[in-house]
Amino acid sequence: xxxxxxxxxxxxxxxxxxxxxxxxxxxxxxxxxxxxxxxxxxxxxxxxxxxxxxxxxxxxxxxxxxxxxxxxxxxxxxxxxxxxxxxxxxxxxxxxxxxxxxxxxxxxxxxxxxxxxxxxxxxxxxxxxxxxxxxxxxxxxxxxxxxxxxxxxxxxxxxxxxxxxxxxxxxxxxxxxxxxxxxxxxxxxxxxxxxxxxxxxxxxxxxxxxxxxxxxxxxxxxxxxxxxxxxxx
Length: 233
What we know:
This protein is an alpha+beta fold. It has helices at residues 2-27, 46-52, 83-92, 133-138, 146-153, 167-173, 189-202, 209-219, and strands at residues 41-45, 93-95, 98-99, 105-106, 109-112, 117-119, 125-129, 162-166, 226-230. Helix content is 38%, strand content 15%.
């Protein structure tokens, strides 16, 4: 009888840790990312928005800029070759330009926040996709339809998505993320990375580990301001 009780005691001791460990393991399992429906609007602190983004490695396999049809004339106002670009330049002009045939813009003035410059000619500006097309592809847009990528490339519904800046600063940026590039004008950094997080949130794009660390470090020195985002994808 004593031997039987000893065996039962040993068996109980062996299996007791498994019972205790199982709930702890389950409690620490990674939660699946929450997916939001297009049109849903949320407001939350930017650091919380960054924490909610999926962290994943990126791949540029198969990328081509041609897979993002851009500068379309979404509102059919006759600017059928550079429609979206012209709309952004008109919206962001400090001094309104004159609009000629085929949406040629003359006179006017603009402010480029990337490098703190005022420019007096539309030809000196580029319209920048805040999160570049290649970066969007790497972060999830490769799985989108052609129409979804077109909508992303011509997003006039969120003023953070497209921004008029000096051609020089935009071409310096190219398709780099905040790990590799920040605007030359340092006082704009907080707004830049905050808008970057908002844009990635809007399209439920991922961030790679290095990008996530760079954004976390930069935002730690910025106000944890609330951002309002309407999901587009």
